Amino acid sequence: MMRPSLAMMYAMQLDCPGKPLGLTARPIPEPKPDELLIEVAACGVCRTDLHVVDGEIPAHYPIIPGHEIVGRIIKVGSNVEGFALGDRVGVPWLGHSCGICPYCRSGRENLCDQPEFTGCTRDGGYATHVVADVHYCFPIPSTFSDIAAAPLLCAGLIGWRALRLAGDVHRIGLYGFGAAAHIITQVANWQERAVYAFTKQGDAAGQAFARSLGCAWAGASDEMPPVPLEAAILFAPVGTLVPAALRAVAKGGRVVCAGIHMSDIPAFPYADLWGERMICSVANLTREDGTSFFEIAERAKIETTTQPFRLTDANDALAALRDGKVTGAAVIVPSL
Ligand SMILES: [Zn+2]
Ligand SMILES: [Zn+2]
Protein backbone atom coordinates (compact mmCIF):
# COMPACT_ATOMS: atom_id res chain seq x y z
CA MET A 1 0.00 0.00 0.00
CA MET A 2 1.37 3.37 -0.95
CA ARG A 3 1.64 5.97 1.78
CA PRO A 4 -0.84 8.78 1.37
CA SER A 5 0.45 12.19 0.44
CA LEU A 6 0.02 14.84 3.12
CA ALA A 7 -3.43 15.99 2.19
CA MET A 8 -5.01 12.79 0.85
CA MET A 9 -6.34 9.66 2.49
CA TYR A 10 -7.16 6.29 0.99
CA ALA A 11 -10.09 4.06 1.82
CA MET A 12 -11.96 1.01 0.66
CA GLN A 13 -15.47 2.32 0.08
CA LEU A 14 -18.82 0.60 -0.41
CA ASP A 15 -20.94 2.53 -2.92
CA CYS A 16 -24.04 0.36 -2.62
CA PRO A 17 -24.97 -3.05 -1.17
CA GLY A 18 -23.85 -6.16 -2.99
CA LYS A 19 -20.87 -4.49 -4.70
CA PRO A 20 -17.21 -5.07 -3.90
CA LEU A 21 -15.46 -2.30 -2.03
CA GLY A 22 -13.48 0.08 -4.24
CA LEU A 23 -10.27 1.97 -3.48
CA THR A 24 -10.91 5.67 -3.21
CA ALA A 25 -8.74 8.71 -2.49
CA ARG A 26 -10.13 11.84 -0.89
CA PRO A 27 -8.87 14.84 1.07
CA ILE A 28 -8.14 14.09 4.70
CA PRO A 29 -11.14 15.42 6.67
CA GLU A 30 -10.86 18.14 9.29
CA PRO A 31 -11.99 17.03 12.76
CA LYS A 32 -15.08 18.86 14.06
CA PRO A 33 -14.80 20.45 17.54
CA ASP A 34 -15.52 17.17 19.39
CA GLU A 35 -13.68 14.91 16.98
CA LEU A 36 -10.26 13.33 16.64
CA LEU A 37 -8.46 12.80 13.35
CA ILE A 38 -6.82 9.41 13.61
CA GLU A 39 -4.23 7.69 11.46
CA VAL A 40 -5.45 4.10 11.29
CA ALA A 41 -2.92 1.46 12.36
CA ALA A 42 -5.27 -1.54 12.25
CA CYS A 43 -8.97 -2.23 11.74
CA GLY A 44 -10.61 -5.55 12.53
CA VAL A 45 -13.03 -7.17 10.11
CA CYS A 46 -16.35 -8.02 11.78
CA ARG A 47 -19.30 -10.09 10.62
CA THR A 48 -21.38 -6.93 10.85
CA ASP A 49 -19.26 -5.55 7.98
CA LEU A 50 -20.61 -8.41 5.86
CA HIS A 51 -24.16 -7.44 6.82
CA VAL A 52 -23.39 -3.84 5.77
CA VAL A 53 -21.87 -5.00 2.47
CA ASP A 54 -24.86 -7.27 1.85
CA GLY A 55 -27.40 -4.54 2.72
CA GLU A 56 -28.85 -6.61 5.58
CA ILE A 57 -28.70 -3.72 8.03
CA PRO A 58 -29.46 -0.07 7.24
CA ALA A 59 -26.34 1.93 6.39
CA HIS A 60 -25.58 5.28 4.79
CA TYR A 61 -24.04 4.72 1.37
CA PRO A 62 -21.42 5.37 0.20
CA ILE A 63 -19.76 4.15 3.39
CA ILE A 64 -16.28 3.18 4.50
CA PRO A 65 -16.82 0.05 6.65
CA GLY A 66 -14.84 -0.95 9.72
CA HIS A 67 -15.56 -0.42 13.41
CA GLU A 68 -12.67 -2.11 15.21
CA ILE A 69 -10.20 0.73 14.71
CA VAL A 70 -6.87 1.24 16.44
CA GLY A 71 -4.87 4.31 15.51
CA ARG A 72 -3.00 7.37 16.65
CA ILE A 73 -4.32 10.90 16.97
CA ILE A 74 -2.83 13.30 14.44
CA LYS A 75 -5.21 16.23 14.96
CA VAL A 76 -7.74 17.19 17.63
CA GLY A 77 -10.91 19.27 17.36
CA SER A 78 -11.15 22.60 19.18
CA ASN A 79 -13.25 21.20 22.11
CA VAL A 80 -11.16 18.07 22.73
CA GLU A 81 -9.69 17.67 26.20
CA GLY A 82 -7.77 14.78 27.72
CA PHE A 83 -6.35 13.46 24.45
CA ALA A 84 -3.10 14.56 22.84
CA LEU A 85 -1.43 14.18 19.48
CA GLY A 86 0.20 10.76 19.18
CA ASP A 87 -2.12 9.09 21.72
CA ARG A 88 -3.31 5.66 20.69
CA VAL A 89 -7.09 5.21 20.73
CA GLY A 90 -9.68 2.63 19.76
CA VAL A 91 -12.87 3.48 17.87
CA PRO A 92 -15.78 1.07 18.36
CA TRP A 93 -19.15 0.43 16.68
CA LEU A 94 -21.06 3.01 18.77
CA GLY A 95 -19.82 6.22 17.18
CA HIS A 96 -22.27 8.62 18.83
CA SER A 97 -25.46 8.64 20.88
CA CYS A 98 -27.90 11.51 21.39
CA GLY A 99 -27.61 11.82 25.17
CA ILE A 100 -31.23 12.95 25.58
CA CYS A 101 -33.50 10.04 24.58
CA PRO A 102 -35.02 7.84 27.33
CA TYR A 103 -32.44 5.12 26.65
CA CYS A 104 -29.46 7.46 26.85
CA ARG A 105 -30.84 9.00 30.04
CA SER A 106 -31.21 5.58 31.68
CA GLY A 107 -27.71 4.27 31.03
CA ARG A 108 -28.73 2.33 27.93
CA GLU A 109 -27.04 4.35 25.22
CA ASN A 110 -26.62 1.09 23.29
CA LEU A 111 -30.35 1.40 22.50
CA CYS A 112 -30.21 5.15 21.63
CA ASP A 113 -32.99 6.39 19.34
CA GLN A 114 -30.58 8.56 17.30
CA PRO A 115 -27.31 6.63 17.27
CA GLU A 116 -24.42 6.79 14.84
CA PHE A 117 -22.52 3.64 14.08
CA THR A 118 -18.92 3.57 12.90
CA GLY A 119 -18.50 1.99 9.49
CA CYS A 120 -22.27 1.98 8.98
CA THR A 121 -23.76 5.46 9.36
CA ARG A 122 -20.43 7.27 9.71
CA ASP A 123 -17.21 6.40 7.92
CA GLY A 124 -15.08 3.70 9.50
CA GLY A 125 -11.62 2.25 9.54
CA TYR A 126 -11.04 0.49 6.22
CA ALA A 127 -8.92 3.54 5.53
CA THR A 128 -5.67 5.30 6.21
CA HIS A 129 -7.50 7.95 8.27
CA VAL A 130 -10.75 8.32 10.16
CA VAL A 131 -12.44 11.02 12.23
CA ALA A 132 -14.21 9.91 15.40
CA ASP A 133 -16.24 11.54 18.18
CA VAL A 134 -13.77 11.79 21.05
CA HIS A 135 -16.43 10.88 23.62
CA TYR A 136 -16.76 7.38 22.12
CA CYS A 137 -13.05 6.55 21.78
CA PHE A 138 -11.16 4.36 24.23
CA PRO A 139 -7.52 4.44 25.27
CA ILE A 140 -5.97 1.03 24.48
CA PRO A 141 -3.86 -0.71 27.16
CA SER A 142 -0.19 -0.65 26.15
CA THR A 143 0.10 -4.43 26.58
CA PHE A 144 -1.70 -4.95 23.25
CA SER A 145 -0.09 -4.35 19.87
CA ASP A 146 -2.15 -2.42 17.30
CA ILE A 147 -3.11 -5.58 15.40
CA ALA A 148 -3.79 -7.62 18.53
CA ALA A 149 -6.01 -4.86 19.95
CA ALA A 150 -8.21 -4.39 16.87
CA PRO A 151 -10.52 -7.41 17.40
CA LEU A 152 -11.07 -6.36 21.00
CA LEU A 153 -13.02 -3.30 19.79
CA CYS A 154 -16.07 -5.30 18.70
CA ALA A 155 -15.55 -9.06 18.88
CA GLY A 156 -14.20 -8.58 22.38
CA LEU A 157 -16.51 -5.82 23.46
CA ILE A 158 -19.81 -7.19 22.17
CA GLY A 159 -18.71 -10.65 23.32
CA TRP A 160 -18.14 -9.18 26.77
CA ARG A 161 -21.60 -7.60 26.83
CA ALA A 162 -23.09 -10.94 25.74
CA LEU A 163 -21.14 -12.78 28.44
CA ARG A 164 -22.45 -10.40 31.09
CA LEU A 165 -26.00 -10.91 29.82
CA ALA A 166 -25.50 -14.68 30.03
CA GLY A 167 -25.39 -14.19 33.79
CA ASP A 168 -23.20 -15.38 36.62
CA VAL A 169 -23.22 -19.04 35.60
CA HIS A 170 -20.55 -21.68 35.21
CA ARG A 171 -21.24 -23.78 32.09
CA ILE A 172 -21.53 -21.61 28.98
CA GLY A 173 -21.96 -22.72 25.38
CA LEU A 174 -20.63 -20.61 22.50
CA TYR A 175 -22.21 -21.24 19.09
CA GLY A 176 -19.91 -20.11 16.28
CA PHE A 177 -16.23 -20.08 17.14
CA GLY A 178 -14.84 -17.02 15.39
CA ALA A 179 -13.33 -13.73 16.52
CA ALA A 180 -15.71 -13.10 19.42
CA ALA A 181 -15.72 -16.65 20.79
CA HIS A 182 -11.94 -16.95 20.75
CA ILE A 183 -11.69 -13.84 22.94
CA ILE A 184 -14.63 -14.59 25.24
CA THR A 185 -13.41 -18.15 25.87
CA GLN A 186 -10.27 -16.65 27.40
CA VAL A 187 -12.27 -14.22 29.53
CA ALA A 188 -14.62 -16.99 30.72
CA ASN A 189 -11.73 -19.32 31.53
CA TRP A 190 -10.01 -16.55 33.45
CA GLN A 191 -13.27 -16.22 35.42
CA GLU A 192 -13.05 -19.99 36.05
CA ARG A 193 -16.09 -20.84 33.98
CA ALA A 194 -16.33 -23.86 31.67
CA VAL A 195 -16.81 -23.15 27.95
CA TYR A 196 -18.46 -25.54 25.49
CA ALA A 197 -17.73 -24.64 21.85
CA PHE A 198 -20.08 -25.42 18.97
CA THR A 199 -18.85 -25.12 15.38
CA LYS A 200 -20.18 -26.02 11.94
CA GLN A 201 -20.50 -29.76 11.37
CA GLY A 202 -17.14 -31.26 10.36
CA ASP A 203 -15.08 -28.20 11.33
CA ALA A 204 -12.34 -30.24 13.00
CA ALA A 205 -9.86 -27.35 12.77
CA GLY A 206 -12.29 -24.96 14.48
CA GLN A 207 -12.97 -27.48 17.24
CA ALA A 208 -9.23 -28.07 17.73
CA PHE A 209 -8.72 -24.27 17.91
CA ALA A 210 -11.44 -24.07 20.57
CA ARG A 211 -9.84 -26.85 22.63
CA SER A 212 -6.41 -25.20 22.29
CA LEU A 213 -7.89 -22.10 23.97
CA GLY A 214 -9.10 -24.13 26.93
CA CYS A 215 -12.68 -25.08 26.03
CA ALA A 216 -13.92 -27.97 28.16
CA TRP A 217 -15.59 -29.51 25.11
CA ALA A 218 -15.91 -28.75 21.39
CA GLY A 219 -18.33 -30.31 18.95
CA ALA A 220 -20.77 -29.64 16.13
CA SER A 221 -23.72 -27.29 16.58
CA ASP A 222 -26.23 -30.15 16.10
CA GLU A 223 -24.65 -32.15 18.92
CA MET A 224 -25.75 -32.01 22.55
CA PRO A 225 -23.07 -31.00 25.04
CA PRO A 226 -21.93 -33.70 27.50
CA VAL A 227 -23.67 -31.83 30.34
CA PRO A 228 -26.61 -29.39 30.29
CA LEU A 229 -25.45 -25.78 29.91
CA GLU A 230 -26.48 -22.89 32.13
CA ALA A 231 -26.31 -20.35 29.31
CA ALA A 232 -25.44 -20.15 25.65
CA ILE A 233 -24.25 -17.29 23.45
CA LEU A 234 -24.92 -17.36 19.71
CA PHE A 235 -22.23 -15.64 17.67
CA ALA A 236 -23.19 -17.40 14.43
CA PRO A 237 -26.00 -15.56 12.57
CA VAL A 238 -28.00 -18.76 12.10
CA GLY A 239 -31.59 -18.82 13.36
CA THR A 240 -31.79 -22.63 13.56
CA LEU A 241 -29.22 -22.45 16.34
CA VAL A 242 -31.73 -20.73 18.67
CA PRO A 243 -33.88 -23.84 19.28
CA ALA A 244 -30.72 -25.97 19.27
CA ALA A 245 -29.23 -23.84 22.03
CA LEU A 246 -32.50 -23.84 23.99
CA ARG A 247 -32.37 -27.65 24.01
CA ALA A 248 -28.77 -27.54 25.25
CA VAL A 249 -29.48 -25.29 28.24
CA ALA A 250 -30.93 -26.48 31.54
CA LYS A 251 -34.01 -25.01 33.26
CA GLY A 252 -33.54 -21.30 33.91
CA GLY A 253 -30.91 -21.12 31.18
CA ARG A 254 -30.46 -18.08 28.99
CA VAL A 255 -29.77 -18.02 25.24
CA VAL A 256 -28.10 -14.76 24.21
CA CYS A 257 -28.11 -13.84 20.52
CA ALA A 258 -25.04 -11.64 20.00
CA GLY A 259 -25.27 -10.87 16.29
CA ILE A 260 -26.87 -7.79 14.74
CA HIS A 261 -28.56 -9.88 12.06
CA MET A 262 -29.71 -13.50 11.97
CA SER A 263 -31.57 -15.78 9.59
CA ASP A 264 -35.15 -16.56 10.64
CA ILE A 265 -35.68 -18.63 13.76
CA PRO A 266 -37.76 -21.72 12.95
CA ALA A 267 -40.81 -22.69 15.00
CA PHE A 268 -40.07 -24.94 17.94
CA PRO A 269 -42.11 -26.67 20.67
CA TYR A 270 -42.99 -24.54 23.67
CA ALA A 271 -41.52 -27.34 25.81
CA ASP A 272 -38.06 -26.21 24.68
CA LEU A 273 -38.65 -22.76 26.21
CA TRP A 274 -40.53 -24.01 29.27
CA GLY A 275 -38.69 -24.08 32.58
CA GLU A 276 -37.99 -20.33 32.55
CA ARG A 277 -35.50 -20.59 29.75
CA MET A 278 -34.97 -17.21 28.11
CA ILE A 279 -33.95 -15.87 24.72
CA CYS A 280 -32.56 -12.35 24.39
CA SER A 281 -30.48 -10.31 21.98
CA VAL A 282 -27.49 -8.07 22.56
CA ALA A 283 -27.58 -4.72 20.80
CA ASN A 284 -24.50 -2.56 20.31
CA LEU A 285 -22.46 -1.45 23.31
CA THR A 286 -22.25 1.19 25.97
CA ARG A 287 -19.07 3.06 26.76
CA GLU A 288 -19.12 1.34 30.15
CA ASP A 289 -18.91 -2.01 28.33
CA GLY A 290 -15.76 -0.71 26.69
CA THR A 291 -13.98 0.57 29.76
CA SER A 292 -14.86 -2.50 31.84
CA PHE A 293 -13.86 -4.84 29.03
CA PHE A 294 -10.45 -3.27 28.40
CA GLU A 295 -9.71 -3.54 32.11
CA ILE A 296 -10.66 -7.25 32.07
CA ALA A 297 -8.78 -7.89 28.81
CA GLU A 298 -5.60 -6.54 30.33
CA ARG A 299 -5.98 -8.45 33.61
CA ALA A 300 -6.93 -11.69 31.84
CA LYS A 301 -4.00 -11.23 29.42
CA ILE A 302 -6.19 -11.94 26.39
CA GLU A 303 -4.23 -13.08 23.36
CA THR A 304 -5.94 -12.54 20.03
CA THR A 305 -5.24 -14.71 17.00
CA THR A 306 -5.18 -12.45 13.96
CA GLN A 307 -4.76 -12.67 10.22
CA PRO A 308 -3.53 -9.39 8.69
CA PHE A 309 -4.69 -8.10 5.29
CA ARG A 310 -3.60 -5.10 3.21
CA LEU A 311 -6.13 -2.28 2.95
CA THR A 312 -6.48 -2.93 -0.77
CA ASP A 313 -7.24 -6.59 0.04
CA ALA A 314 -10.30 -5.71 2.15
CA ASN A 315 -12.57 -7.63 -0.23
CA ASP A 316 -10.41 -10.73 0.26
CA ALA A 317 -10.65 -10.30 4.03
CA LEU A 318 -14.46 -10.11 3.81
CA ALA A 319 -14.56 -13.17 1.53
CA ALA A 320 -12.35 -15.15 3.90
CA LEU A 321 -14.64 -14.29 6.80
CA ARG A 322 -17.73 -15.19 4.79
CA ASP A 323 -16.21 -18.56 3.83
CA GLY A 324 -15.17 -19.39 7.39
CA LYS A 325 -11.51 -19.33 6.37
CA VAL A 326 -10.28 -17.02 9.13
CA THR A 327 -8.84 -18.50 12.33
CA GLY A 328 -9.45 -15.91 15.01
CA ALA A 329 -9.90 -12.45 13.51
CA ALA A 330 -9.06 -10.80 10.19
CA VAL A 331 -7.42 -7.38 10.60
CA ILE A 332 -6.79 -4.74 7.94
CA VAL A 333 -3.42 -3.03 8.30
CA PRO A 334 -3.08 0.08 6.07
CA SER A 335 0.72 0.22 6.40
CA LEU A 336 1.20 -3.21 4.78
ZN1 LIG B 1 -30.10 8.55 22.73
ZN1 LIG C 1 -18.61 -5.70 14.98
Would you identify the CATH architecture of the largest domain? Alpha-Beta Complex
How much of the residues is beta strand, in percent?
25-35%
Continuous helix count:
9
Biggest sheet layout: 7 strands, mixed
Kindly, what is the distance between the CA atoms of the first and last residues, rounded to a whole number of angstroms?
Answer: 6 Å
Judging from the principal axes of the Cα atoms, what is the shape?
A: globular
Number of domains: 2
Number of strands: 17
Structural class: alpha/beta
Query: And the CATH topology of the largest domain?
Result: Quinone Oxidoreductase, Chain A, domain 1
Ligand roster: zinc ion
Unreliably modeled segments: none
CATH fourth-tier homologous superfamily of the largest domain: Medium-chain alcohol dehydrogenases, catalytic domain
Specify the CATH class of the largest domain.
Alpha Beta
**Which sequence of SSEs, written as H and E, runs from N to C?**
EEEHEEEHEEEHHEHEHEEHEEHEHE
Cα radius of gyration in angstroms = 19 Å
Short description:
Helices cover 23% and strands 27% of the residues. It is α/β, with parallel strands linked by helices.
Please render the helix and strand layout as text.
Elements: E1 8-13, E2 22-27, E3 35-44, H1 47-53, E4 69-76, E5 88-91, E6 94-96, H2 102-105, E7 116-117, E8 129-133, E9 138-139, H3 146-149, H4 155-166, E10 171-175, H5 179-190, E11 194-199, H6 204-212, E12 217-220, E13 229-234, H7 241-248, E14 249-257, E15 278-281, H8 287-299, E16 306-310, H9 314-322, E17 329-333
Helix pairs in contact: 4-5, 4-8
The chain binds zinc ion (2 copies).
